Amino acid sequence: MLPTHTTRIEIPKDTLEILAAEKSRTGLGPAAIYKYAKALGLIKPTTRLDAAMIKAWMQGKSRSAYSEGLEAVIHAYLSVGFESELPEGAHPKQLVLLTDGTGHELANFLKQRSSSVRALMLTDEDAPEGLTAYKLKRLAEGKETRIELAHLLFLRRIALRWANSNMIQKDRERTADRIEKSNCE
Questions:
Q1: Which of 61, 79, 97 is the last residue of a domain?
Q2: Which residues contact 140 (CB under 8 A, 6 or more apart)?
Q3: Could you tell me whether strands 95-97 and 81-82 are parallel, antiparallel, or unpaired per DSSP bridges?
Q4: How many percent of the chain have pLDDT more than 90?
């Protein structure tokens, strides 16, 4: 049952400007920020908030909000940042804005793999929830501007494993070449 004494406040103009700026910065609209805030646990079951309310704030159709809902949305927007800005032990569902460098790094790694190999990555026991073949395809095409922290860390681990296995294979080939050359002499 929802509490009967929740605080409804008027939304100050500067707060609306912050919401608009954060929407532009992160690319997260009302439905996406609502879903993200829920994933982070910022919206409690007793919080009176839904995506339509957030949309009404952003469109200027509603000038008031329940304080806990407004605070949750602002906190969710402000938690989206670049990887270097994330605190130690950040929530795995925290969204990371992709810099050109990180975006290119992921795109290059994923482009070098076929769609079937990318799908195979998803069968790894460490594959995080919510990472799909479609998301991998969009990352490979450079069409994503943000990624969940857990997805980014997983892809980095896979890339490192892949690089290590390639190095081991190259070492084996070089050793075999040396042995072959020494046998020929």
A1: 79
A2: 106, 107, 110, 111, 113, 118
A3: parallel
A4: 66
Strands 64-66, 81-82: pairing is unpaired
Token pair, residue 104, equals 């290119």
State the pLDDT confidence band at 1, using cuts at 50, 70 and 90.
very low
Q: pTM (2 decimals)? A: 0.76
Q: How far apart are CA 84 and CA 108, in angstroms?
A: 21
pLDDT digits (tens, 9 = 90+) for 54-96: 999 999 999 999 999 999 999 999 999 998 888 888 999 999 9
108 and 90, same domain (yes or no): yes
Q: Are residues 160 and 96 in the same domain?
A: yes
| Residues paired with residue 65 on neighbouring β-strands, in sequence order | 9
User: Within this chain, do residues 62 and 107 fall inside the same structural domain, yes or no?
Assistant: no
Same domain membership, residue 67 and residue 93 = no
**In terms of Cα–Cα distance, which of 109, 64, 67, 101 is closest to 84?**
101
